[in-house]
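FAQ: What does a multi-protein file look like?

Like this. Sequence, then C-alpha cells, then the next protein.
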Amino acid sequence: MSRLDKSDWLDFALAQLAENGHGALKAQTLAAGLGVTRGSFYWHFEDLAAFKRDLVAHWMDRTTEELVRAVVRDGDAEAQLRGLMRRALRSGAALERAMRAWATVDAEVAQTVAAVDWRRIRFAEQLLAALGVSEAEIGPRSRMLYWAAIGRLMMMRSEGQELSDAEIEDLAALLSR
C-alpha cells in the first residue's frame, strides 16, 4: 500500500460518515479501516478537533465548491441553472443526511452546515439574478429550489423518483421567468 496523505484520510472518513454515521469517526476505527496504525492519523491531524475541522471543510469543498466550479463550466446562466438543478436534484443522499445528523449533536458541525446552506442558496441567487429574475423573487425562488433539493435528499427512499431532463428543463424555465 502506498503512503496515505491527508486527503486519503478525509475521503475515507467521508465514506465512513455516509455509511456508518459520525460515530465511526474515531482515529482507531478509521486507521483500522485503512489498514494503518493510529499513529498515521496523528501524523496528519494534530488531534480529533483538527480532524473534525478538516473533515467538515473537505465535505464543504467536495459537495459545494466542486459543484459550483462544475456548474460554472456549464456555459451561460441558463445552462448553469439547468446544470445546478440536475446535480442538486440527482445527487446522493447518504452523505448529506449523515452530515446533517452529525450537525444535530455538534454545534461546530452545525455552524458549517448552516454556512454551506447559505453558500448554496447564494449561488442559486446569483444564477437567478444573471437570468434577470426580479430582485423580489430571487430570494424566495432560490430558497425554494434549495429546500426542494435538501428535502429530496432527506427522503429515505428517493430511488426511482428522479426528475427527467425534460422536467428539470421545465422547472428551470419556471424559476428563471
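And here is the next protein:
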Amino acid sequence: MDLRTIHRLEEIVGRENVLTSIENRIAYSYDATPTFASLPDAVVIPQTPEQISQILKLANEDNFIVVPRGSGTSLSAGVVPLPNSIVLVMSRWRKILEIDRENLTALVEPGVITAHLHQEVEKYGLFYPPDPGSMTISTIGGNVAENAGGLRGLKYGVTKNYVLGLEVVLPTGEIINVGGKNVKDVAGYNLKDVLIGSEGTLGVFTKILLRLVPKPQSYKTIIAFFNSLGDAGKAVADIIASHIVPATLEFLDNTTIRCVEDYAHLGLPVNAEALLLIEVDGHPAQVEEETQKVEKICIQNRATDYKIAKSEDEALKLKTARRAAFAALARVKPTTILEDATVPRSFVPEMVEKIQEIAKKYQIIIGNFGHAGDGNLHPTALTDERDKEEMKRVELAFEEIFDYAIKLGGTITGEHGVGLAKKRFLEKQFNNAAIDFMRNIKRVLDPNNILNAGKIFDLKPRCEGRLPTAKEEIEKYKGLWI
C-alpha cells in the first residue's frame, strides 16, 4: 500500500487512528485460529459510520482489502488479513445505545462484549439468550457476522434468532438500515438474514437491534456421568423424546473430562467416559417437574453419578466443567485446533464414536465436547504445529471428520464459520450451483471484492482436481507471513 493511500486514510479518521508500526500490525495479524497469520498494511480505527463509508469508497478507488474485526476470537481465520489489506477495528464501538423495556429490544454498537450485554439487560429482568463460549471477550458484531451459537442454542436458538435490525455500511460505501422493532415485517427481500452470518464479506455493522425475552423465573443445573458414550447419547435422545427442551444439553468425552479436572480441580470422576451438563429453566413448577424427569432418564440409562446444583454458586461450578473445556485442552500441547462439525442430533453418538475411531487411526489426541442437544460437536486436536508429520495426520483426520459429518446430513461448521480455514471443504457440502449463487451475491454487493476478500470462497471457481491442503491455502495468499 503506497503512502498516498495511508495519508488519505489519516485524513478520514485522523493520524492517531491509523497504526502502521510493526508492533501494532503484528497485534492484528492473527485471530484465535492456529497456523494462520499475515501482516496487514495498516490498522484503522474509525469513529463514525460516515468514516467507514469513506474508507470503503477509498478501498474501491485504490484497490485494497478491508477486514472488519471485533475481538479477534474467530476460529476459522475469519479476520486474518490477506496481502494488501487494512484491518478495520470495531472493538471500540462499545455503547449500549438503548434498552427498550416496552418493545423488548436492545440497540447496541458492534463492539459491545456479549457478556456485558447479558449483565445489563438482566438488571431489568430481561434476557439475551445467545451465549457463545467466548462470550466474555467476543463482541456482538462478531457474533452477528458468524451467526454465533452457544450453550443455550437448543432451547433458544442462535444469534440470527435475536437480530431484529442492522445499520450496515455496504462494500461500496452506502449506509443502509434493514429491519426494525416491528414484530412482523415482510416488505421486500429479507436483507437482514443475508447479512447475518456473512463473515464480514457483505457489510460492516455499525448498529445492531436485538430482541430480548423475559428472564426465566427459575432454573436447575444438573450434571450426570456415564461409563459409555452410547449410554450418554441414549439419555440425550430420551430427554428430547420426552418433550423436554433443556436450555443447555452439553457433553464432554473422557479426554476432555480428564483435562478439565487437571485444570480446574472440580472433583470430576476421571474414569467416566462421558459427562452431560443439563440445565432446565422456566416456571418453578415446570423446572421441578422436568428436573425429576431428567434424573429418571439419566438413571434409566445407567448414569454412574448424578448431581443437581443446590445454589447459584454450585450451578456455576458445574457449568465451569463445560466452559473450561477449551482452556483445559489447550494446556496439553502447544497447538490446539478446535473444530465444529455438526450433525442431526440423532447421529451424535455415531459421530462421536467415528471421531474416536479417526483419532486412533491417525494416532493423534482429539478431545471432544459440544452441544449434544443440537448436534454441534467440537472435536479438538491437541498437537504441535512444529511437528509437520503430525500436522499432516491432523489435517487428514479432520478431512475424514468433515466427510463423515456431511455423509450423515451434517455440515462442516455449525457456528465457527468458514473463513480461510475451511473454505476448501465448502464445495464438498454444496454443489456448484449453490456456490455460484453465493458468489453472485458477493459480486453484486462487492463488485471490486474489497470487503474481507478471500474468505468463505474464491470468486473464481477452483480448477478440477483434489482439494488444496491447509498449507497450500495459506501459501496461495502468502504475503508478509509471520
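Q: Is there any per-entry metadata?
A: Some entries carry free-text notes. For the entry above: Residues 478-482 have pLDDT under 50 and may be disordered.
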